[in-house]
Amino acid sequence: MNLDFIDMLDGYKAENDELLQKMEDALMEIQENGMDDENINAVFRAAHTIKGSSGMFGIDYIVDFTHIAENLLDKIRNHKIEINEDIIQLLLTCKDHMQTLIDFVMSDPENSPDEEIQDASKKLIDELKSYLDVDAPTPAKKVEVKEKEETKTVDSSKELSNNYKIKVVFSKDTFEDGYDPHTFLNYLQEIGEIQSVKTNLKDILPIDKINPTECYISYKIKFKSEKDLQTVENTFAFIKDKSNITITNKSDKKIEIPKEIEEIKKEQPIKVEVKKEVKKPVEIKSVSKVKRTSSAVKQTNYLRIEAGKVDSLINQIGEMVIANAGVMQKAKNAKNSDLIESVSIVTRMLEEVRENAMSIRMVAIGETFNKFKRIVHDTANKVGKKVDLVINGGDTELDKTVTEKISDPLVHLIRNSVDHGIETPDIRESRGKNQTGTLQLNAFHDAGAIAIEIIDDGNGLDTEVLLAKAIEKGLVSEDDNLSEKEIFELILQPGFSTAKEVSDISGRGVGMDVVKRNITELHGSIEIESKKSKGTKITIRLPLTLAIIDGFLTKVGNTHMIIPLDMLVECIELNQNKKAQMKNNSYINLRGKVLPLLNIGEYFNIHSSNENTRSNVIVMQYGGQKMGIIVDQLLGELQTVIKPMGKLFKNLKYFSGSTILGSGEVALIMDIPVMMSKMEHKQKDY
Amino acid sequence: MKIFSEDGMCFIDMEYTLTIEDVQQLKDELIPILATDKEFVVHCIDLKEIDIAGIQMLVSLKKYLDANDKIFEVTVGIKFKEIVSLFMLDEYFKGAIV
Predict the structure, then answer these.
(1) Bridge partner list, B9
(2) Is the pLDDT reported for residue A260 higher than 60?
(3) Phi and psi at residue A646, to the nearest 5°
(4) Residue A285 with chain B: CB contacts under 8 Å
(5) Whose CB among A210, A255, A282, A414 lies 3.0–4.6 Å from A205's, allowing a Cys bridge?
(6) Cβ atoms of residues B22 and A289 within 8 Å
(7) Tell me: the pLDDT tens digits for A407-424?
(8) Does the annotation mark A416 as catalytic?
(9) Residue B70 and residue B64: Cα distance in Å, rounded?
(10) Helix or strand run (H / E) with residue A186
């Protein structure tokens, strides 16, 4: 590759990863819903852009490979070849291979891929060509001959200083496609010496007739270089589909960049989605600017920012929140009402800034869900099952860090569902079910958390089998009286697997405990419901963010504690009347319903500073369950910057983090899901 | 981009860029005054960035003005000179450079 661009590789990879994902999504759509022009064009555009950007970076092996895949895609989109399951599978494999090639560039930009990768490229190219050759033998053969001719020329001129004559008539779309004729001259200057340039301006229309976003320029260049023909040709690799390029070498042998395969494209040029928009007159004079390409428009609508910068911004906002709380505290101490009012304004503004900054980190979970279509497809194919994946709530937003960390556990759960949950078509039929199983992925917001459900209509969990296995493995004893829910939770234990055969997909029992651990690390929870022969539902609940939350500050004794505001339903005073009703029990009657209570002071052995302090009950709701927490004082809402507890307290349950108050004191943030779970176990003990 | 039109003379200050991102706006702002103004001076001396779409726009404007017996002039800086020199268009703009 051209090492001048090495600093831009991160951007190259990020853009191409996105394109590859789009390619996969579109292919999966075609597989599910059949061929449609929009999706096949999306696949083609992705391949075309990857080829273009790889050409710009001088990554020839990606250009060569993608070019062949692009040829096949072109024929499909022009209905010259009918797409079928085999071709979709081949294109998916090609997409994977492009990812491998791009990953290789990142790991070793200076060298060519090793033999194994090259072999894989060759094998796939052969397979792609087999479709191209069968369908249109003439152009394919012609190209092959031409390529051979060119190779000969290159070989004979390798040692010579070559004099090239280059003629480029740029396509009108050149600017819109993101290219500037200037760039090519700059690059030619790097690899040789430009002897002369003859710029043809005759096609440029007068200002009243011109469309300024179209390119009317062509040029002829006399160029001297040690580089071979292929290298010179590659300079124009990513515009050769649309523009007319002729390169003549020293021996005056005219060589045209092969166009036979591109002919079809010429008949139906690639329509960039934003083209129509670009052609619209700019209405807002002072602000609007014409955008060059689809990617340019993207850059306008979406700004790609290094994640670390956003994290740093949020950390700084966090520190500002803490510092502001300190100023507020001092203003209150000084009883300076003007200052308190001013600080309140800053607090409100800071809250808005915080919300905006946090929204930068929020991404739709659907992006992650879409990746699972392929996993379901591949896994189902491998084990001979038919599975429909249904996605609901893909637009539910979640902190990007959480999204990234939850991806692997979800992959494992989905594979498990397909491998162990959903039955083979014959078994399903014998059970009176549809041959095709359904796997549902649902996401929705639930009390300050996001809930993700993985539901299958397969085998379901067999409590008897699970219990027997757990006893055999010594995880529980026969005397343990486990509830159905606890038996289901056994599958989350390390080393627990009931699969009769260990497959390469799942069944080694090394996954579910890791799933649980990952979710716990994210301060989330996992819940399993199942009915034998009906199916299984796994619900994961995760906090929306790991950085700053709206909290509710309380005090127990001299200890400050914070409750996530989203989980708080109401606060009620625990007056003498209610205390009398309780009769030392740990529940109260809340409007006709029993509300279990946890006395934080008693539980953590915190002595109340004043015995006469009136207690309060904070009613919490999480995962469809309610509980009350008894605290001494209610101090109100607080923007809470979550600080980790530190290594020393990493095993501390019940608290998900801490924060620093305006006074400089530390407040602990209660982990409500853990407390709920504790409460549940406590009730069971009775 | 700033455009001043007075007494039949139009002064176009491209400020820092004359690229694909500016050309549509330039055209839109010039079209209404093309018929009325006689002399057009494009100030390119401070340009920090210019591309071929920008050059093409200047050629396009020059073509129109030449055809309608109007005056096209351009002030040039380093960036302008570089690109014009690379594309060997010095001769084309020679009479217009002030």
Answers:
(1) B6, B39
(2) no
(3) 90, 160
(4) 25, 28-29
(5) A210
(6) yes
(7) 888 888 998 899 889 999
(8) yes
(9) 8
(10) helix A181-191
The complex scores an ipTM of 0.95
CA distance A502 to A491: 15
Helix/strand/coil for A627: strand
Distance (Å, rounded) from C-alpha B73 to C-alpha B86? 20
> What is the distance of C-alpha B8 from the center of its chain?
16
Domain ranges of chain A: 1-135, 312-362, 365-543, 548-685
Judging contacts by C-beta atoms under 8 Å, the chain B residues touching residue A290 are 20-21, 23-25
Contact A285/B25, CB-based, under 8 Å? Answer: yes
| Sign of the Cα pseudo-torsion (A33, A34, A40, A41, in order) | negative
Of A274-283, A591-600, A634-643, B79-88, the poorest mean pLDDT is in A274-283
What homologous superfamily does CATH list for A1-135? HPT domain (1.20.120.160)
Tokens at A186, concatenated: 């700059």
Sign of CA dihedral A285, A290, A294, A296: negative
* Contact between residue A499 and residue A478 where contact means Cβ atoms under 8 Å apart: no
CB contact under 8 A, B23 and A205: no
The top-scoring range by mean pLDDT among A272-281, A669-678, B15-24 is B15-24
- Structure tokens belonging to residue A359: 């929204």
Instruction: Tell me the CATH number for domain A365-543.
Output: 3.30.565.10
Structure tokens at A581: 């009703």
Sheet strands (E) in A557-611: 559-564, 568-574, 587-590, 593-599
Question: Do residues A461 and A491 lie in contact, with contact meaning Cβ atoms separated by under 8 Å?
Answer: yes
Residue pair B28/B59 in contact by the 8 Å Cβ criterion? no
By the 8 A CB rule, do A13 and A104 touch? Answer: no
pLDDT 10s digits, A122-132: 999 988 888 88
Phi-psi group of B88: left, alpha or beta (phi > 0 → left; psi -120 to 50 → alpha; rest → beta): left
Alpha carbon distance A60, A220 (integer Å):
25
Give the whole-angstrom CA distance, residue B13 versus residue B5: 11
Query: Which of A175, A207, A216 is the closest to B27 by Cβ?
Result: A207
Domain that holds residue B59: 2-96
Beta bridge partners of A438: A388
Catalytic residue list contains A38: no
Are B40 and B74 in contact by the 8 Å Cβ rule? The answer is no
**What type of residue is A603?**
Y
Which two three-digit tokens encode residue A523? Answer: 């301060």
> What pLDDT does A292 receive?
36
> pTM of the prediction?
0.51
Q: How far does the CA of residue B9 sit from the closest CA of chain A (Å)?
A: 17
Token couple for A306:
């290094």
Best residue in A186, A201, A284 for a mutation probing chain B (most B CBs within 10 Å): A201
Q: Does domain A548-685 have CATH number 3.40.50.300?
A: no
Q: Is the dihedral of CA A575, A581, A583, A584 positive or negative?
A: negative
Burial B10-24 (b: 16+ CB within 10 A, else e): bbbbbeebbbbbbbb
Number of domains making up chain B = 1
Look up the CATH number of the domain holding residue B18: 3.30.750.24
DSSP 8-state assignment for residue B97: B
Please tell me the distance from the alpha carbon of residue A104 to that of residue A98, in angstroms, as a whole number: 10
**CB-CB contact of A115 with A122 (8 Å):** no
pLDDT bin (cut points 50, 70, 90) of residue A139 is very low
